[in-house]
Amino acid sequence: MTLKVYNYLSREMEVFEPIQPGRVGMYVCGPTVYDHSHLGHAKTYVAMDVIVRYLKHLGYQVRHVRNITDVGHLLDSGEDRILRGARRHRLEPMEVVETYMNSFFEDMDALKVQRPNISPRATGHIPEIIQWIRDLLDAGYAYEVAGNVYFSVEAMPDYGKLSRRNVEDLEAGVRVQVRDEKRHPADFSLWKRAEPEHLMQWPSPWGAGYPGWHIECSVMSTKYLGQPFDIHGGGLENIFPHNECEIAQAEAHHDADFAKYWVLVGSLTVNGIKMSKSLGNFLTIKDALALYTPEAIRFFILSGHYRGPVDFSREALEAAQRGVQRLHNTLRAVRDRMGTAPPAGTAILSDVSALTDYRKAFQEAMEEDFNTPQALAVLFEMVKDVNQQLTQKGDLSMGSLAAIEKTFGDLAGSVLGILPAEEKASAVSSELVEGLMDIIMDLRREAREAKEWERADMLRNRLALLGIMLNDAPAGSSWTYEG
Question: Tens digits of per-residue pLDDT, 193-214?
């Protein structure tokens, strides 16, 4: 089998062939840390996480770099997002950065997104950024006007090759109001002049200022991965102008291709509209984790192909919660049976497909551009067959059960990250369980009477993860354990 990926640069499916055999360099545009992250960010980084996990599963040595933008990312008004956050929270800019960078890492850890090998920050690379800008000026790709330095898009004949936009058709003011000093409306900032009261500024050959957003990623990606590198990932919404500008300045600076494969993630939507802070239609990751398990959120995201949009709804998350619970229940049953299994017995899934067939089908799905919806379908075919084996065969051997557990662990756990850690048995009295459930049921009843539906649903979902199912009836609510 051969891994194929959709390359946004060519707009075609391509066989994946890393520049260095056995090694993959991957850069992902990271967050601008000025507020708590929301589920839209989760979609991007969970999708990228699964791609990294699968490349490692195939045996590649992956160097994963994901940056932190802590200066230079401007709003449409021209205001720096970090400075706006500092004013809103009445904090120092770097205090905002530290607060929300830590919050982002906490969210990613909770969602089982593996940390990258390197997490460079823009403010830690100002000397390299200034040197790059000097090089671009010397080579004639940039120009300086009154302390501002701009990249000249007309100096790069193929500018627009990623987004398929023609320079002459680009309108002025894509991100900020166009200054009269620009030679072309699409020229973008490499260095911005800082006014005296500006809180984030550094000395440079062009006066005090700060870097533009796009130059940061070009500098940091090539510093740690070289040029060209294998995969550039991130959100599809950044294809223009951010990714386009990254390519232009990097290829002008190095006179070489920037990245070989462009692997970009579609948006999370709400009623068909992209989830974003500016629209107010967002749910923070922290709030989502109070309602749903990390595995359910990952399952929900992976139930759609990473390149396409996924529409958020409570019903979709609850369906994902039920899906992972079914998977977890099967794995729990396998582990429970291992405690009493004989050393020898029936063949592994002898009456259905062999485990090797499930592994092959899973790999075939993932090697078609990381098709996680199809990979999940394969896993649930396996769940169905395993449950039948557990019901019909009383003599499954320890070896058979261990092989089943390992297959779930490798595919659903190591690659997709939707399995919980192995559960450890503990002796708990039935009286204690009954007493604790009485307390939980009272808390949920109070929440329902107060019409605190999200809190009530959170309790239901958390209990479902443990195999405890609730039944709400006019006479009251009851529970059963279906572990």
Answer: 988 777 788 999 999 999 998 9
**CB-based contact 230:259 (threshold 8 Å):** yes
4-265 folds as Rossmann fold (3.40.50)
Per-domain residue ranges for the chain?
A: 4-265, 285-415, 430-481
In sequence order, what are the beta bridge partners of 469? Answer: 480
Residue type, 87: R
| Contact between 226 and 256 (Cβ < 8 Å) | no
Q: Please, are residues 40 and 274 in contact by the beta-carbon 8 Å criterion?
A: yes
What would the two tokens of residue 87 be? 């004013």
Mean of the pLDDT values across residues 43-68?
Answer: 97
Euclidean distance between the first and the last CA atom of the chain, given in angstroms as a whole number: 37
Strands 23-28 and 61-66: parallel
Percent of the chain with pLDDT over 70: 89
Cα–Cα distance measured from residue 334 to residue 123, given in angstroms and rounded to the nearest whole number: 50
Q: At how many degrees (to 10) do helices 294-302 and 39-57 cross?
A: 80
What does DSSP assign to residue 209?
E
Average pLDDT over residues 139-164: 96
pLDDT recorded at residue 173: 41
Number of CB atoms found within 10 A of residue 66's CB: 26
CA 94/CA 156 separation, integer angstroms: 35
112 contacts 294 by C-beta, under 8 angstroms: yes
Residue 468 makes CB contacts below 8 A (sequence gap 6+) with: 437, 479, 480, 481, 482, 483
- Choice among 135-149, 197-211, 217-231 with the minimum mean pLDDT: 197-211
Type of residue found at 170: L
Q: Is 307 exposed, middle or buried (0-12, 13-18, 19+ CB in 10 A)?
A: middle
CATH number of 285-415: 1.20.120.640
**Residue 453 class from Cβ within 10 Å (0-12 exposed, 13-18 middle, 19+ buried)?**
exposed
Q: pTM of the entire structure? A: 0.83
Using alpha carbons only, give the angle 304, 310, 312 rounded to the nearest 5 degrees. Answer: 125
**Does 431 have pLDDT greater than 80?**
no
